[in-house]
């Protein structure tokens, strides 16, 4: 007879969101069961941000060696051993893995079941030889790469963002399908490591990011030799002699052509890992507008009141920090009841290219839709920031959107360490700060944090003159 577990919370999936939810629940004293069928840590650790950043670090080092003359140093063409680079990437992942190991969760008091979860009815999940009847369930099953329906793709070998880190040789020419953040981050890294790279996207690369910011990164990548083909549709993929791959494309203008590649990487969108859960048995409905997504309320609850979803399983923002925020916001509400609002606009959006792109808050189209013309955009060129110029990274822009009172609605940065700087603006948004608050804090000099202070000062400088301030100045002129 199967064991029946009755915890306060059952979490299906031990990726970033599932692990964050488990730790948050244990901190509240809840009894927690986690079900994971594969690797602990999910995509963020094993095939996402961690390995991509480790690969990019190797590429950045090679680029610095190759372009050292801009700092007055002798240039040197690096010897690149892709097998060694990817071995180092995997060692970084292995070094972090103990932080998310089953043993660590067990030490926290979490019971981990290594099995595949299936819903048996509206309140029971089966996992191996055990049944789980929790008071509440969280679906945190993550996502996997979407393989596009391209004629001929199934007949040639291809890589995904989960297998690219196992290459042992440098591609003679790498073709990447998808101008996503992951696609462009990997494209830049491999180009800096000496491989010719072409990126193909049927629409606009980095379509989710403000075009003014995107243009900064795309210009840099193209300058470094990445061939980025936007508005270009792949019509067919064909195999050739010696393992060569031909990618036949048709652009918005011009004649169709065939791009030759030795390796093909699929870096298009991802979709939620919800297949095989037997959702219908639990009374969990699919989004009628998108069969790859769950139907969720604004509070991330499914059509079954006992079940919630977080992370990539929601089909929404696919970042580790967003998943952790969802987990922490949801767990307290699910277990204790007091309202805890999940506010997506407070979650930074980052593209880890060089230069980095980062946004937080509302975008200009969103503000325009809500407020019409009742907003202001303040811009700052990074060429005016001394630290950026000293580092040879003065190409970039920071832009801040405010309402008529000066309250910050959204911020975007394209430039060095944008992913770090955006945290300051995320804090400002969470606390409903204004441009005047930014102008009034003290930033060290020379530091990139000065960008926040300068944006606030520029906003005040370009604002309409306060009539009371003008009167006070006139009065002071009459005083001795």
TrEMBL record:
Protease is among the record's keywords: no
InterPro entries named in the record: FAD/NAD-bd_sf, FAD/NAD-binding_dom, FAD/NAD-linked_Rdtase_dimer_sf, Pyr_nuc-diS_OxRdtase, Pyr_nucl-diS_OxRdtase_dimer
This protein's record includes keyword Signal: no
Entry-linked Gene3D superfamilies: 3.30.390.30, FAD/NAD(P)-binding domain
Family statement drawn from the similarity comment of this UniProt entry: Belongs to the class-I pyridine nucleotide-disulfide oxidoreductase family.
Domain Pyridine nucleotide-disulphide oxidoreductase dimerisation: 347-451
Protein name: Mercuric reductase
Domain FAD/NAD(P)-binding: from-to ranges: 8-327
Cofactor dependency: FAD
This protein's UniProt keywords: FAD, Flavoprotein
Signal peptide: none
């Amino acid at each position: 007879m199967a064991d029946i577990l009755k915890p306060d919370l059952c979490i299906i999936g031990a990726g970033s969101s599932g692990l964050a939810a488990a730790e948050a629940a244990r901190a509240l004293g809840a009894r927690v069961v986690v079900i994971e069928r594969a690797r602990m840590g999910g995509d963020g650790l094993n095939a996402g941000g961690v390995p991509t950043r480790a690969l990019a670090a190797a590429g950045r080092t090679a680029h610095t060696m190759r372009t050292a003359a801009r700092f007055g140093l002798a240039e040197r063409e690096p010897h690149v051993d892709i097998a060694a680079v990817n071995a180092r990437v995997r060692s970084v992942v292995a070094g972090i893995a103990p932080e998310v190991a089953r043993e660590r969760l067990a030490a926290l008091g979490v019971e981990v079941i290594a099995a595949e979860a299936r819903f048996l009815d509206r309140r029971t999940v089966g996992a191996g030889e055990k049944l789980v009847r929790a008071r509440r369930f969280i679906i945190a099953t993550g996502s996997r790469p979407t393989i596009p329906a391209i004629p001929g793709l199934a007949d040639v070998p291809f890589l995904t963002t989960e297998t690219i880190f196992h290459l042992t040789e440098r591609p003679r020419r790498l073709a990447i399908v998808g101008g996503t953040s992951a696609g462009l981050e990997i494209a830049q890294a491999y180009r800096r490591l000496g491989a010719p790279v072409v990126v193909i996207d049927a629409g606009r690369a980095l379509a989710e990011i403000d075009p003014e910011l995107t243009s900064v990164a795309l210009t840099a990548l193209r300058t470094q030799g990445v061939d980025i083909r936007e508005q270009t549709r792949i019509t067919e993929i064909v195999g050739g002699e010696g393992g060569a791959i031909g990618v036949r494309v048709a652009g918005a203008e011009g004649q169709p052509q065939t791009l030759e590649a030795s390796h093909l990487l699929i870096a298009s969108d991802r979709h939620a890992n919800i297949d095989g859960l037997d959702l219908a048995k639990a009374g969990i409905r699919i989004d009628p507008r998108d069969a790859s997504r769950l139907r969720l309320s604004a509070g991330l609850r499914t059509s079954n009141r006992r079940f919630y979803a977080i992370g990539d399983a929601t089909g929404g923002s696919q970042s580790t920090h967003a998943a952790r925020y969802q987990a922490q916001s949801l767990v307290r509400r699910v277990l204790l009841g007091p309202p805890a609002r999940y506010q997506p606009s407070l979650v930074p959006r980052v593209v880890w290219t060089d230069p980095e792109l980062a946004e937080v808050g509302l975008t200009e189209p969103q503000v325009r839709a809500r407020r019409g013309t009742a907003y202001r955009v303040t811009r700052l060129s990074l060429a005016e920031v001394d630290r950026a110029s000293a580092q040879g990274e003065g190409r970039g822009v920071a832009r801040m959107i405010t309402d008529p009172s000066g309250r910050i609605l959204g911020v975007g940065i394209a430039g060095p360490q944008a992913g770090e700087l955006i945290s300051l603006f995320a804090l400002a948004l969470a606390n409903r700060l204004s441009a005047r608050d930014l102008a009034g804090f003290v930033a060290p000099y020379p530091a990139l944090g000065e960008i926040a202070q300068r944006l606030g000062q520029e906003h005040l400088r370009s604002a309409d003159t306060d009539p009371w301030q003008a009167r006070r100045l006139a009065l002071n002129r009459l005083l001795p």
